[in-house]
## 1
Amino acid sequence: MRYVIVPCMAGVLAAPSALGQVVEETEDGRDRVVVAPAATDNCGWSIESSVPFPLTPGWTLNLRRQVGVVRVGDLNGDDRNDLFVGCYTSNSFPPYDDWHDMIFYNTGDPGAPLPATPSWICAEELHTGDGQLGDINGDGALDIVAITGGTAFNPVRMYLGAPGGPATTPAWVATPPQAGWPTGGMLFDIDRDDDLDLFTTNQGVAGVRPEDAWRPMHFFRNVGGMFETSPSWLSAEISIQNTAAPVDYDNDGDLDVAVAKWVNFESGIYRNDGGTLETTMAWGVGTTGTDRGAAAGDVDDDGDTDLALYLGNVGTRIYENTPQGLSPGSTTTPPFFSAQEIALNDVDQDGDLDVLEVHFGDGRAHLYLNDAGVVGPAPDWTFDASEVGNAIALGDLNGDGWDDLVVGYSGNTSVRVFFALPQVVPCVADLSGASDPNDPAYGVPDGALDAADFFYYLDQFVASNVAVADLTTTSDPSDPGYGTPDGIIDAADFFYYLDLFVAGCP
């Protein structure tokens, strides 16, 4: 999709063109684009063969909706993952006439796991820009926390899960101290009492003064299996925020809160001190911009939690957790800077977390593969939709053990699911089907790891066959040269192969 940016303030809309242009607005009302077709619309491409996603979706929702959130989880207790779709309303043109939230229950058919029409429709029609799934009351069923807001200032609400699916009316509705527009939420145990609490980001609507659009962040404590009605914690800062992620940035065992913020406000981290969240930022990125998107995980595979933040006009930057603090590392460089949501997930099952983005301004979803802790700047996989992109989620929908990619849009096709293509992970230690050099299977991998493989490697090692036996420069797994051939066959190669043999095949 080609894009034309139209400056926008939440709640204020210039009249759309008399030429009948399609105008789309983000779920927080902060961006607007005039949609125009492009040659790459509804096309996918990849520059890396190990990408597990196809170039075309395997399932689409062909209902005209503005999808603000997609989430994957077992919502009816049948041990199969379902799809939750939250919808929002805005000043887009032409107007949308339906924004009920929906659930698509898994059919159990691996070839067609999602039905064409929703299995569950929310009784209320509210602006849902984000949402989370979690067992709030500890009954074993997933509940839905819908981050509802919009210019109507709908407060956050929760739909309790049950066998067969959640209720269509909320069991809990927040009563914040000030009317506002919740923009994002996350569930995690902030006070270390073994239940899920709720943290929300918020904004207002532009008015006479800039601060009319500023709101504090809220924390709702879980008390006895239900959130407190009014938040027991408010940030000291009032600002415009949109996304949060839990991250133990100081490695003290407490989950701190990372927040992405909008123009003129610095994204950063609020420290959790023994279950008590500080009201002012302990760490910041050092800049202010159009940031939108936060995620956390061990990206560099060193045993601690790193932070991913989407920084406007920069890309998704990985802040590596080091003994000296968070340090900027890999940064993606998408062709257009308009991410709505980012995610970290080991999509190719190689043991490290990859980066995913979905963009509003050009309708593209991107995957950046992680190679030994380094995320490349260019996307390894892209799908360019004719609609604007809003939401992203991953989860195994067809039961093959691989996470599928779900992307939510605003437009006639409002959800696309890309079913993962399971990759065959090569077993480096599997070298031979026979230990007899006269056997045709000698030197031919057979998918099994046994003594034949070990003796075949030993033969190649003794024969100084560099093509097979040269495996590493060092036998120390902590050395950067571990697993990198150096053109020399020595003891390091032998012990490296021995490590592989003992570890077995994936």
## 2
Amino acid sequence: MKPKYRLPFFLVIQIITLQVIAYFPELVERCYSTSFYQTVSKMERFVFGKLPFSFGDCLYFVVLFFIIKWLWIKRKSWKMEWKRNLVQLISVFSIFYFCFHIFWALNYYRTPLFEKMHLEREYSDADLLNFTEKVIEKTNEIHYQITKKVSEKVIFPYSINQAFLLNLEGYSELQNEYPFFEYSNLSVKKSLFSLPLTYMGFGGYLNPFTNEAQVNDLLPMYSFPTTTCHEMAHQMGYASESECNFIGFLASIKNKNLYFQYSGYSVALRYCLANWEVRNPRVLKALLPTIHLGILKNYKESDVFWKAYQTPIEKGFLLFYDQFLKLNQQKEGMDSYSKFVDLLVNYYKNKALR
């Protein structure tokens, strides 16, 4: 085989290997997610977490610059040398694909959290209604403890950097109950791409090459802690969006700080209400009057925020990410975010809310 075809051939080998690996989640869990990955991710967070800026975002800038430069140089010769250029592109992608999976993305193939925590997958409307009513009661309770008024929305009193540090307290409490949710070496940054991230409709993302969690710092702050905890769950090696929503919720409500508990419960409640909107709008209509007006004002705050940045670009990126998730073991695509209600309902079937 000619040297120039080795990397493209390696890409084919990688794709086939991943198809096989998908049938052995226990092996991935044991040999990668809870061993090799943990060592690499903690080391990366230790190194890059000390930087006051996002090294990963800077890396993306550099890569984007060289891609544009290469395309500019090749613009005139593309028609005559398209085969050679295509081989070069595939070769570079092959290296990228390998690094993406070895540094993080093999976690897509690990044992599902349902199995790890011995949770059921199915639940009835009665189960969902029971859980939703309990969440409403708990969210109302914490909302009133903070505001002392039913009609006032919660205003988050901490800075972004303070929030990052306080999130560690929630994870520390969660770790005491579930050691496999251990988090160490904080490496969470404000994204340098927060504005375009908002236009794309995202609250944050993980850089799989530096293990830095990037959070959109333009978000309404009442939900900021849970969004951050979601990205921190990705850092721990959980790839599923529903699982990270679930872990982020637990880390938020385990926090002794009321504002962080409110963040977790209010986000979970909103997902439950969205679930009812699809399942039975009449139930949703009956539930809404039982929720404090101040909580609904926080939801309105989020709606106004996202609508201000709504463009056709967002739909394009969400469609792309939907396909990306489906290609990476998340068959529901973007709907996998809301699947965390399944985890919540089954987790609390025999438990009381904190």
